[in-house]
Amino acid sequence: MQNRNAFAEIVLRRVATANRIAAVHPPRAPRLSASKRRWSGSTLKTFALPRIAITIVFLALAFPLLAAVREVRSIGLTVDNLGRELNFFTNTLPFELVSISEASGREQDALLGLSGVRLRVSRLKLGDEYITLTEHLSKKGRSIPQDSRSFDHWFQHIAIVVRDMDKAYEQLRQHKVMHVSTAPQTLPAWNKGAAGIKAFYFRDPEDHVLEIIFFPPGKGDPKWQQAGTNIFLGIDHTAIVVSETDKSLAFYRDLLGLRVVGESENFGVEQEHLNQVFGARLRITALRAEQGPGIEFLEYISPPGGRALPENAKADDLIFWHTDFLADEINGLAARLHERGTRFVSAPSVRLRGESADSFEKVMLRDPDGHALQLIRRADPALSSVGPSGNGLSNR
Asked: Is 379 helix (H, G, I), strand (E, B) or coil?
């Protein structure tokens, strides 16, 4: 089975990169001797059929991986005071409140790797994208470290797209947001992949870092260029600091099935002012699923010294962000991740409203640098609580 999965991953990687390489011409038929030319028609048909059959088998082997993650559904923040955070996200920022619910019980304990869990969860929407704010009511975790830096490996933020950077920044200034960037920065013309993009980092009342970003014509998703009057448009991506891009690609691309959609290397005075890191030089890699916001890797080539996520970090700590991924199935994907040494937040025995005794609906795990992910089984909407108006939590 391990050999089969390894081979399937190779096939998947080749399929995933097919849109970035020139098409390969089919091999020519083998040269036939004169004595066999009269058989050429039937011989070539006989030769072709096994190749087609083998190709089908190869694709069948790869299918479970191809059907892994379909959508980045939402990005979740752990908060200390939900009322204060809701006021910020719906007033300073124009997120729309979709729902508030509470959750508790053994299932939630198992999912989050805690005991005595009692949660209040708010789901918010901006444009087509969603975030969740989760407050732990029974036991509060630790605040974000006061000396947290943009190149520490636990760093994560969401990038909120704006139509007009000057107007968006002025609105944030009127609400006296805490700056991370000195001011909005325009990435320079020499940086072909990012030239003309404007960005600004700031903090919410509990020190979660957020970004507003402006895409000039020809950059970013075409939907950000649609006509309208709203200043704040939606969420383009969530960015995570990674220690090694290749290691993270092996996880997000090769195991989860996301595709790489862009790469760049950012440095210079603009980058230093953007994230307040002197001498910052970043390797940036953007990935996407079929739907939803992107995932952006930030690997700091310099400076060195980014700190790893503390080993004792828990789901009730405010540095605990999580990204929700919808998948067609959970069991096989979770098994493959477990075989490759993935750390799980959830207890191995967690079951959340599966259709059978051996099926997951949700499982929480960590990527190679400790960023949390929640895998949600993509079920028939009529049978699943996961959807635009629900939070998938067990209400009690």
From this structure: coil
